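ok so I'm stuck.
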Amino acid sequence: MGDPRRLKKKFKKPKHPFQKDRMMEELEFLGKYGLRNKREFWKTRTTLGNWRHIARQSRTLSKEQALEVQQTLIKKLNRLGIIGEQAEFEDVLLITVEDLLKRRLQTLVYEKGLAQTIHEARQKIVHKHIAIGDKIVNSPSYIVKQAEEDLIRFAANSPFAQVKE
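replied:
not stuck anymore, here's the structure
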């Protein structure tokens, strides 16, 4: 099981830490999506890179294995709402970091109008005012599945729930 004090990082740092163009791009995403720090952006980028890696690796497998891996990946991305129903396997390689950031709970709370700013959305999530269905979710980076998108609302015990009604 391993020592709990030796957790693996869920992100990869940039190979060149001081490239001005990349740093400015990261700062734009931080401001637009209300990320706490660049580490959150790097986690998202690493997740996307892992999916792309699976997609590229599947091309080297036998046809039966490749088809199984590709179908599994497409179903997962479709369930998350990152790609559409009619998506081809080549569309997996066209996914951007922004597509993934749009599926975060923080972004969707802001877009639904439950918060006036993206930063307020983060605060309401962390302070346990937001629920998906009946379950309170306090992680702004939670990737909301397409089926759960309509279930985002204020928690029953939140003072904001009474204000909205």
